[in-house]
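Following up on my earlier thread - several people asked me to post the actual chain instead of describing it. Fair enough. Here it is, all 727 residues.
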Amino acid sequence: MSELFDAVDALVASRAPLPSAPERKRLRTAHGLTLDEVAGALGVRRATVSGWESSKKTVEPRGPEREAYARLLSKLAELYPAPAAPEEPAAPAPASGAGAPHPERTETVSPSPVPADITARPVRSSSVSRRAGARDTVPAATSVATPTSGSDSRFANGPLAVVDVDTDSQAWAYCTGGLVLEVPARTLAALVEWALTEAKLGQPRLSGPGKDADPLLVLSETALERYGLPTTLTDEERHAGRIPEGHRAVKQLARAGWKLTKRGLGPWARIYRPAQGAERACVQLCIPSWKALDARHWGHAARLPPADLARVLGLYASRVMTPRGSTAVTGLELMTALHPPTRASQPDADGRRHSERNPGSLGKDPVDPAPCEAPDGHPLLADLPRFHVRGPDEKLFEEAYDWARPMTDAECTLRHLVGIDVNMAFAAGANGLLVGLGAPTHVRNPAFDPKLPGSWLVDLSHVDLSRVKVGKEWVQLDGDLLPSPFTPKGERPEGPAWYATPTVAYAVELGYAVSPREAYVRYESGRYLDGWYQRLRDAYLATMADLGVHTDLAPADFLAAMNAREESDPEAAIVASAIKATVKGGLGKLRERPRGEGWRPGQPWRALSRPTWRPDIRAAVISRTRTNLHRKIVKHAAFTGQYPVAILSDCVVYAADGPSPLDFLPYRQGKPLPGGFKLGINPGLVKHEGTQSVLWGEEVRERFDAPDLNLARYIKDGTVTDLDNGE
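Reply from S.P.:
Thanks for posting it. Predicted structure:
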């Protein structure tokens, strides 16, 4: 009889109810599990689990896998219940008097008439009118904005607010979605308290074991005046990155029990009280007039009116995360937010949970790099002679391309130099990349394994670019017109050198055997950057779609849309620029160098205390990005006989008869060369960077007496003000 019961139980389990595909994904990510981890536990392929979570075409599990999968989801649902549905918002109460909100309550501003002397401008996402060339006046909302943080009532008013003061000395908080709140706080300490207790600002965590984002307050110049802060920093304060600790605003915060992080009260400041259990009390400040928003990445954002600035920063926050500092800092923080270092363990015998390492993360403790991965001045190199210069066999040097060559006679007969640029090249290089999660292990005479992250000492000087494998076939090329894929300057290696795994793997792909002499490998590995790439990719594509550039455009339509993109929505263009800067800056932070602080060579610097200080991961991403680009160049050369004239990072310049990329990219019936360059907005595809004449290129090189001057640096607008080194 028991066998019959078992058979019945198995039959019921084989049809176990499962939640919807989005809920399956939510439960997995809430617990910090990767697709690979779930697939490994259930004994299926990664793609199978991905199919189970796909909303477009959900594939249902069967048999014992379904039973195990249902059990997993059931356990996760107990730990992470679905959020309650949001209540229907109540209709706003009729405004009284002049329509100003009650002075003792924080609430949505009701509609109010616009004074006759106010010139209203067309409103997009904001419902605030503004005097032309003057400060923002009282709000003139036409409707109550809806909450922007989904069903989480704690953050009903969005992730951030831009605080401004009108001509009547009333402070207003401009939130995302056009929402405007009255700010009753009269002091900086009271403003911080208000942000945490009444404003309902913040953002839910991006991963189950992670932390919710703190409220972000952006202070305009009028707000700085109100709260006793300078509107600009002196040269000394700007160099220090903060106002003095003896400033009265800093003392006021201290008297109220608030603390500042080590970076003090500067352009990006974090004000907090020590956490009580799981409760955090922390507010982030952003001060644009103190140069918090770098114009290289945020364009003219610092000069926007409060409502528009709230829209720009809110859009970035919703698609990337609430800014935590510069785009570089935010890029690094995003990695940690998606892979928190720790999580709560399963209950022990006493029902207690403990902190344990979160699988797939870098953990909470920093690890030393291999000696070859350590930058000059690192404590690991303290015993080297003072003026010793490490060569390629002592130092890993994986950097982006900076290569150029003289044009051939045939190229000089053409009319144009056309630059193409790879979209989000370094993000694409991070996608699917296996990186080490822990400390390196030193190995002598290892067998090369392309799936093993690490640094390898190997001689690649025998790789001959005039005869390489493309796919499964050997092809003949003009190797003198190609850069080496193994060095940033494109020079052929002269002997053993240190390389990251993707570089050595590419040498094997080109058809050549490799024999490493030694290596520092990391046996604990994972696709740490996959979620980071996916979030930034989705943010970039969504923002470019706002600008009218979509992923399904035909090549000619794509080029036209790119030319018109910034005119369609200048503020969305700012967000797109910031997203791209987040990619490059975040990867750069993985090998952050000393920043003043009285540092001397051989001494540790502050960044070394982070588990995210990982020069090996940065090197692997750059290695893969550079070899990805070289692969496309080789494919293009083998098919068309065309070779690049110059390469700078992710920009490649070709000589062509016409001014458009379509004049030299081999499209046939709308289809590009497989494995070659393809026009499009997705990461890894290319866009038009700029076109100049061949005569311009020859004149510039002659003027500077530099036949190898890198024309890719100036191809965008043709302006060459002075010879530089690319730094």
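The chain has 20 helices and 22 strands. That should answer part of your original question.
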